[in-house]
Amino acid sequence: MHGRPRKAPKPEAEAEAASAIKAEKLRILQSTFLQNHLNKIYTKEALDVSAKLLESNPEVYTGWNYRKLAVEHQLSQSESDPEAAKNIFDEELRVVESALRTNFKSYGAWHHRKWVLSKGQSPLDHELRLLDKFQKADSRNFHAWNYRRFVAELMKTSAEKELQYTTNMIETNFSNYSAWHNRSAILSHLLKKKASGFESQEKVLTEEFELVHQAIFTDPDDQSGWFYHLWLLQQTVKPESPFLISSWPPHASDLMVASDSSPSSSASSTASYVSKTRTLPLILYFDQLVKGVNSSTITVDSELCSSTNLIWRPVSKNTATAAQAWITELTLLDAMSGASKAYPIKISIGHSEGVTSLSNVQLLATSQIAFTVNIEKRASDNANEQDVEEILWTDGNFHASEIHHKESVPVHPFTLLSIADEKKPPSSTWHVNTLLNEITLFRELLSEISCKIGKLTLARLLTAYDSIMMWKTNPPCAYKFVHTEEVLELYSDLMKSDPSHFQYYKDQHSSAVLQKETASNDSLSKHSFFYKNSASASKVTCLRLNSMSLSRIGFIERLLWVQMLDLSHNEIRTIDGLEALQLLRYLNLSDNKIKSFTALEPLRQLPLEVLNISRNEIGSHSIDTTRYLSASPLSHTYSNPDFITSDPDDIKNYWEAYILFKGLSLTQLDIAGNQICDDKFISFLVKVLTSLQWLNGRKL
Amino acid sequence: MAEDDASSYPPIEPSTFDLIVIGTGLSGSILAAAASAVGKSALHIDPNPFYGSHYASLTLHEFTSFLTAHSAPLPHPNTQPQFQIENNDYIVAELTTHTLYSDIEVTVHDPEALGNGKKFNLDLAGPRVLYRADSATELVVKSGIEQYMEFRAVDGTMYVGSSEGRLDAVPDSREAVFKDRTMSLKEKNQLTRFFKLVQSHLDATEGDETARISPEDLDGPFADFLNKMRLPEKIKSIILYAISMADYDQDNLHDDNYVLKTKDGIDRLVIYQKSVGRFNAPGAFLYPQYGQGELPQAFCRRAAVKGCIYVLRMPVLALLMDKTNEQYKGVRLASGQMVFSSQIVLDPCYNFTSPIYSRPRIRREKVARGICIIRKSLKPDSSTFVVVYPPRSLHPEQMTSVRVLQVAGNLNVCPSNMYVVYFAFLCFDADQGKRLLHTTMSALSSLLADENSEDSSSSLPEKTGTSEPSILWNAFYIQELIKVSTRVSPIYFS
Prior knowledge:
The complex is a heterodimer of chains A (700) and B (494).
Chain A: H1 12-38, H2 44-56, H3 61-77, H4 82-102, H5 107-118, H6 125-137, H7 142-155, H8 159-172, H9 177-192, H10 201-218, H11 223-237, E1 244-248, E2 254-258, E3 271-274, E4 279-291, E5 298-302, E6 305-306, E7 313-315, E8 322-331, H12 333-337, E9 341-349, E10 356-357, E11 367-375, E12 398-399, E13 401-402, E14 407-408, H13 429-448, H14 452-472, H15 484-497, H16 502-517, H17 521-525, E15 528-531, E16 540-544, E17 564-566, E18 586-588, E19 610-612, H18 626-629, H19 649-653, H20 655-662, E20 668-670, H21 679-688, E21 694-695, E22 698-699
Parallel strand pairs in A: 2-3, 2-11, 16-17, 17-18, 18-19, 19-20, 20-21
Antiparallel strand pairs in A: 1-4, 4-8, 4-10, 5-6, 5-9, 7-8, 9-11, 12-15, 13-14, 15-16, 21-22
Helix pairs in contact in A: 1-2, 2-3, 2-4, 3-4, 3-5, 4-5, 5-7, 6-7, 8-9, 9-11, 10-11, 11-14, 13-14, 14-15, 15-16
Chain B: H1 3-7, E1 19-22, H2 26-37, E2 42-45, E3 57-58, H3 60-69, E4 83-86, E5 90-94, E6 96-97, E7 101-108, H4 111-114, E8 122-123, E9 130-131, H5 135-143, E10 151-153, E11 156-159, E12 168-169, H6 174-179, H7 185-203, H8 215-219, H9 222-228, H10 233-243, H11 262-275, E13 285-288, H12 294-305, E14 309-311, E15 316-322, E16 328-333, E17 338-340, E18 344-346, E19 350-351, E20 364-374, E21 385-389, E22 402-408, E23 419-427, H13 430-458, H14 461-466, E24 471-482
Parallel strand pairs in B: 1-2, 1-18, 2-14, 11-21
Antiparallel strand pairs in B: 3-8, 4-5, 5-15, 6-19, 7-24, 9-13, 10-13, 11-12, 15-16, 16-17, 20-23, 20-24, 21-22, 22-23
């Protein structure tokens, strides 16, 4: 129970003796009971034994199951006698009630009660009275609340009445997570079915905001109100319908595609892509996980292909049926063998139903992406690609602009798709005003007191406000994120004042930094450099987000174009989301805090050639915590190792490394400066990575 | 009481006691009950035909006649208290009484509705309530008198802070602050933060000076401390007058005696807050079924059960003192009998002169009291509640808090379709008191009028013009307050 002082333990000897007696009694009961259970004895005496056992220890789950069997047995004996059946169930309720008196947090007992009630033989009014008693004794007990929802449903109690009940409980004591939670559940239900009085989500949410303000301002140290506030904020800003936010190639772009390493840039083209495989990826990126992307829901209109042949694949770490990013490959083989030519391509989404969110909500709007692909016919198509130059991630190799040609670094534009005004994600005047009002209130509160959760909420509000304002702006990329600095300051402050949640704040801080640095093509251009090794004429544009103290990556929708990415000298622990960068060939993750190969799992989906993971923490931690957070490779259906090593221990010892690297055709890998990297591991890598030419700066 | 009646009494047997208490007021009754409970023989005498003395609850007629009777000195052969030597054994000091009531003004608006007035139990010393968490309530429980009487919860406390005179619930607990709709969010935050500060002060262990309020602050005026905490005027006023129940305007004080010190203010606040919700009932206060007069009567009954002897309708004429060692020996009753005890407790309204004892000068204050009987509740959704008008909220010259108690008919103080409203405040001067009584009365009437006008919007307008008067009866009086300088918890006007 909550808020009750713990009873002082009895003197040791006395307690020990008492518990020994109790244990002995229970042991006898238990063995008699198990004997009965085994022999399927359901006599009255046998039932009494089980009742006694459960009343003193409601946690014996077998006891409840036995009683269920016994009830069924008794019912079969006394068919066609409704009175007898009622008595049987009444007895069950009595046993549960006294078991709950012993421990009313017993899952087994509550579950048994639900089972009895679901038989429909027992009066429900009594249940409400019982609940009132329990909820008076402990108003926050979630078992009782859970059971209340169950009974309310059985009784078909109106949701409005149950909502009023939560209001009463909250007014009695607003420090009650269970009551706030139940309120959110009931309101979701009422809003969804647009019950009378709940037609307008805006009106309901406004009133709820007002209610929760009373709790938060009355006692900012009580967290239950804050949690409800977070739910309200989510309801306010969360777009229900999914929508397409970006693509590659970007809308309205003019793409130069060549099969060798340097397509000639022409004045008209805005982007270039080297396709050694003579395929062109098409990537769609949505604001949330969507499912149902396939050749019948997405129309691709081009003479390069017929859309019915295209296979759309979700880009997701778990390769489920849903993903934020979806990809398909256009085959350019025929086009590339012909003359240089421009091909317009048009992709239409949402014209036929089928693409939905995880909760089956249709797309917000139809979208159309149109771009041109210029296929360049080159004489030197079949250059010898056997020898690959080493990529050196030193500052000297990155150039802000090409001095000789006086051209600036071509930033590959990303375009956040504008959405027709009438179908915008949540960004009505009400949304804007609500957020502005919240922001004003919490600024005022924070001027009075110092409150961690208040700062966090303010940071979330400011971020949400900026996000809403971005979608109101046309085009979205033109929006200036006015609150980023304040958000960064709040998170920096929180990292200092609340070290136990440092990592969370750090992640949010990283997100805000990325938001700022990738907000527009202008800001991106500050981080874009030509990579040009002195020995070679080839050049690649590299996005350098190095030394920014990032702990994670985000805003992937703005980075779909990136082929070379420098994330070195950050504090990156996870690269989740990076799998959507389907053009990524060169990646520098050196000097970060990657702890395991499992954490690098997103790389398995990328066409990666060069990877630098030097000076991370792989092998330094004996327990790979990532495994518990993400799907373990062992839980997937992997084919058996398809290479035979001379040392069978290799696979056992380096299983994670093997899973990661066997799918990659790396030509260069830098992994020095990790605990795991000893001679044995190096020799293992050489065996696994057959295409590898450079390892830790050494030519193989 | 005429002495003839008293002389017809049979003599009291025995005539010597461990304790003699004169007057069945609240304190005398508690003392009698306490003495009897520990096995002392006690005699409890009262000149009135009822228990409770100045704490009694009376019917309409008893009420007015009692006030009138005590607005002049009790008839006594000598106008000046005297003493004389009698029988060569005792020094006899004659007792007189103070004139307690003045400026009595009773107005009957609707005699028909009041009937014979016997359905009323009007408190002489209203408005009085009990804090649920203070020592008086503990005493009720410990002494066992709860078996003789029943208490009802007072729904809540209201205060009038706005110029419109609206009754707002006092945000006296976390839950009340949450529910309040009159304070801004910022004010709510400031108020609960102050409650928490007090709580951490109380919880702080000895030596933990950071969590404690400094001794200088504790000894200083509570109002200054609230200012120091940067509380806005409105919150300050709520804490000072509606929670800590300061009597005097703490912002314009001419006399240091009236300053509410921080430590006292906090003590009162804590008692108030502990009272809220105790015994699973709303509000902070209790009120006895059948009126406050039940309380002394219940103590008397307790005393009687434990062997205390009761004699009502028996005036006491004089104190007897030993001539040689100048000790109190006993009293002479109106029946002529002398009863003896070396311990005598006198109701504070008595006066006497003695060669060996001169009463300390008592600071004389007055309390202005008003009662009215009304048909409709002052607040439509509430029936029994306390209202505080902080200083200067009714009138610029209002120097003290005006406290109001409305009691509904279901507490058996009046017929069930009526309400009794008590109000009182401290004053220094009877005229000033009378003026403010009238101001308060009209403020209360306007609450009733507001309610009527709200009704009229839904009913026919001509009906309001001919409707019965909402006030059936009212009485104003000024009572002399004899302050006993003991540390008493803030019960209304001890």
